[in-house]
């Protein structure tokens, strides 16, 4: 074991850098002369089979493999192994050996390139195969160990065309499930040739499995002689296939090639007479002994497969007869009950190459068949053609992955067209060829999408649309309510006093009210639009003066003004609210007249009364200017009085400027109160 | 107490007639009509300040003081509309229209109240009256157009949006919705033009981008549509619908991985968005991720049990997962829910049982 590992290591170490073919010589294997001797013996035995005419590849292969185990790195041996595999039922196994051979021998000949191209082609490696086919050119003929091999330029072109077809078809695979029919139908040996009843309830297959009738083995190493087996559909899977036994199966080859749609008649292939077609009937549950279909169908040539028309009247069959052939084996049609000769289906179906495995679908117009011609991707591909308007339509390759670069033959379908059956030696089977069930999924079923839109802007983003009736004009009273209590300033007792309402503009007294004799309360309503002078008077008291200048539109207001009337005492001060000057000047405005007259009257009625007229300002502007203004304003009042008959001696004028505020000058209202004209009783 | 205001009235009306001998008065006690109007104006101010309960109280006072105050009914109705008291709003509009027949504001307001109560025929009638009473009032045209659009009368809706735009050529919403009617009428070029105009007038009217993308998809302008979706999502990335629709556009563009990313984002924003689950299932199908597709479709069906499209897609996924019976059930169910093609699939797949009608 250790020794073998050593050799393996040696071998692999020798390869990568500069791969070189290692010959079976003492120079290379001097330390294992026994092993070398054994390997050479295997090589010789293998060559004997390999070089036979015809070559016995199946027999040669085990010898070559044994020698290859000893020396994996001999280019020539790897080519031979590849060649053997390419002539077996497991052709793709050739690829690694041929690839290795190409690596070991950089100067590989055109034949090696061709074999490698074939292995690549059969493995579906289209691009690489095309490259190798190119290197196989332009050799029109190759030789192997002295035997002539025919490989025409036309053959190479055809192979390359097949690769290109394969590339195209593999790029758009058909949607199918390909399922191994399972151990119920398949065995470790070759199982093929399925035929089904239209309803898929019954299947008949051909198998070379152990237990063949007569127990004979194929001399070419392809297992036992063929027998026919039958199974029925159990709902989810097939029942285990059982050998039909005699009289259908005999010691010779017995293969099923067709089944009537109703499953009552079967077409059987037998190897006699170059290959003939027979028919058996189902009598109850047992098949009758197959009978010859007659000389119109069976000739000395090879009749290999057949299919009934749905009505059972016609038979489509394959024969390599020469008469009327378009090349290779062709498909023919014959009226089973009539006497006419079979008719070749013509060039729409048949080609210069072989056609095989004919099957007429239960619809009576769709013909499935295999062909090496048309646009095959290699070997036999399965095609279908529909008979319409009196002619066969262009055959359609069933596509990848149903068809492969190797032979794909003996395809049948159920009546529904949902399933097809065929045999293939694709990887993953139970051994050799297996029966596969194809489920046709049809064109891709388009997925369906959903979406929604927001098509109305206002539904997505509502906007305010409220329409409101506008505001209304409120009939608000344009009046000022003046109210309060008149009291004696000294005793605080309520006074019954007269309240004169004077329009300063005209000097006219508009109305006179009286305060309540008991409570001293009064209320005067002053409609807007007038500069009111209000004088509260009572005998024995100095009058009290207020001013309300209410422009038109002045809103309703309520003013509470308590009025303390002062008795005529020396030192008493009264503010004259209704004396008005022009702004910044000492000129009396006409609205002052009523107040001045009232003052004149007071002085006239009280002859001993002496007054000091005082002017006051707010603190806006310079103090000196304010002082001057207040002085001049006081003098203006004195002047008015003296001009109206009051002795100047009774009057003095004093300007106090901003020095005696009665309210803070910080507000407009406060400054207004501070801008005032007063008199003070200096004698009475 | 009764005498006092009376006395004051006398004072106000003949203030200088006699020497007043009064004790005390409440000068602020104003006569009835002024109270109604003052309350009304106060209500209006409250409404504008969105103080609807206060507004309602004021309008109540106004109506109590002046039962024939039409404007107060109109505005109380508007207030009740805002308070979602639609039937009462409608009653107030009725009263306002009784007092002031032919007032467009009453018809328009009542139409809105009717619409809010799903009285769509009555709403449409009232909008029509509003349009008649004031043809230059665009919102009445627009709202009637919306109602007509929603009942599938796209031609009439388009006429109304025309009317709205005649009354107000700057009304972006009318352009937008007219575009949508054009889309429904199959006039995709005109629709694209109107959506564009809406965006010019109101660049933040983002739905116009989404809807323009739809019309562009319909006319095979997939790159422009994708650009519009991108522009929309750059400005508003929290809209599951937009991601879903861009996902569909990407799907149409055979960008299935991109579509899945969008559907995933839509799901992230709204895990209950059945459409996004279904659509992601569809994209998974294209990528031959059948188990994921089946799972997504199942999620869509959990959210929307009558979702025919999700059944159909799950049927496809299950077929590929070799769950033939389940696929058949799903296709049949899709057909039962309205997607009749489900029966065709079931038949082609050899499903047992009768097709659903």
Automatic annotation (TrEMBL), chain A:
Q: Which UniProt keywords apply?
A: Cell outer membrane, Membrane, Signal
Start and end residues of each OmpA-like domain: 570-684
Q: Which CDD domains match?
A: OmpA_C-like
Signal peptide span: 1-19
In which domain of life is the source organism classified?
A: Bacteria
- Subcellular localization, as worded in the UniProt entry: Cell outer membrane
Q: Major place of localization? A: membrane
Q: Per the record, a Pfam family?
A: PD40
Report the PANTHER family cross-referenced here. Answer: LIPOPROTEIN YIAD-RELATED, STATOR ELEMENT OF FLAGELLAR MOTOR COMPLEX
Q: What is this protein called?
A: PD40 domain-containing protein
Provenance organism: Hymenobacter armeniacus
UniProtKB/TrEMBL annotation, chain B:
Instruction: Give the matching InterPro entries.
Output: TPR-like_helical_dom_sf, TPR_rpt, Ycf3
Keyword Signal attached? yes
One Pfam entry for this protein is: TPR_8
> PROSITE patterns, from UniProt?
TPR, TPR_REGION
The TPR repeat boundaries are 36-69, 70-103, 138-171, 172-205, 240-273
The keyword Signal is assigned to this record: yes
- What SMART domains does the annotation carry? TPR
> What span is annotated as the signal peptide, if there is one?
1-20
Keywords (alphabetical) are: Repeat, Signal, TPR repeat
Query: What is the protein's given name?
Result: Tetratricopeptide repeat protein
The organism of origin for this protein: Hymenobacter armeniacus
